[in-house]
Amino acid sequence: MAQQISAFPPVPLLTDTPEVFDPKAVTWNLFQANTLRPELNALATEAETNAGTAQTKAAESLASAALSEDWATTTGALVAATDYSSKEWAQGATAASAKRWASDTGATVDGTEYAAKEYASGSVVPSGSAKEWANGLTQESAKRWATELTAISGGLKGARGYAIDAEAQAEIVTSAANFKGQWSTLTGDLNVPTSVLHDNAYWQLLNNLADVTTSEPGASGDWAKIPLLAGNATGAIDMSGFALNIQWVTKNTAYTAVAGDRLLADTSAGAFTITLPATPAIGDEVWFADSGANWATSNLTVSGNGNNVDGAATFAADVNQGNFATVYNGTQWVIRLAGGVV
């Protein structure tokens, strides 16, 4: 508590009579000497002490402010040799900061775990990032399950592969469902989709006929032989597992095909030519699919090997992810589209 000044005694006045003035003057002088001066000196000492304390507190406040600033903004080093600042924890590169947990790629943040960005779009997470699971080529990604033409896992391939298989057989299946019996028993007109039995084989009609008796399966290009997987003693067509058992083979260099081939033609390493069989039978087919999605850049050339392909000696497939079949009609190879333009 601050020093208090004692109450002053009566002050001698010029108007006082000597009898009153003299005692007051003595009392006042004694008060100044014994009370007022010591109290004023004590107040001065206390003020000096308080000034020193204030100066010390001000210096401490400045130091605290500087330390507070360090705790708030210092980057690249510990604050007070104990911990990192708010800024370092938020966006620094030294600590496992929020920024690093959000955006580091290529390695773990703390030696054990990866940042959110690495899990989202990186390439070093052992189990694969979200991006790799979405459209990577090394994982069983959504993209591969959507577009892969060959087996990915457990003998299963992508949806596009099954779609091509299914589309490639759709006309055959439809024709089989419209089976008309022995060709030799039919007369009059006959329209697609239709299948018949002739010479112990099943045939798919490719063109509408005004008179079926004028177009014999095996001798006319109006028919394609159905490549059955199996038959039974009654002559009925066994289509069980048909599309799923079609085998596609990858080719990335020149190759001479055989009838019935299903070829994944990958031109990613450069354009090349596939040559069709030299002595095809009516109804022979060879199927093609762009497994590298690169035909537009590096064309796949299909050579007729002495027979025309759609009126020319060769055919150029130049649309990415195209797929088609070449079918021999007795005169030339014709193109049949199957999901995608070529």
- SSE run: HHHHHHEEHEEEEEEEEEEEEEEE
- Approximately what portion of the residues adopt beta-strand conformation? 15-25%
**Secondary-structure-derived class:** alpha/beta
Oligomeric state as shown: single chain
How many β strands by DSSP?
17
Shape: rod-shaped
Tell me roughly what share of residues is in helical segments. Answer: 25-40%
Strand order of the largest sheet: 9-11-13-16-17
- The chain-level mean pLDDT equals 82
Rounded to the nearest angstrom, the radius of gyration is 49 Å
Outline the structure in words.
- The structure is a single chain.
- The chain is of the alpha/beta class.
- The protein has four domains: 14-73; 98-158, no CATH class; 160-238, no CATH class; 247-337, gp9 (Jelly Rolls), CATH 2.60.120.
- Helices cover 31% and strands 18% of the residues.
- It has seven helices and 17 strands.
- The protein has helices at residues 18-73, 86-91, 98-103, 116-121, 130-135, 142-147, 159-177, and strands at 151-153, 156-157, 179-182, 195-198, 201-205, 223-225, 230-231, 237-238, 249-251, 255-256, 262-265, 272-275, 285-289, 300-303, 314-317, 323-328, 333-337.
- The strands form five sheets. The protein has a five-stranded mixed sheet, with no helix packed on it. A four-stranded mixed sheet has the order 3-4-5-6.
- The termini are far apart.
- Residues 229-245 have low confidence and may be disordered.
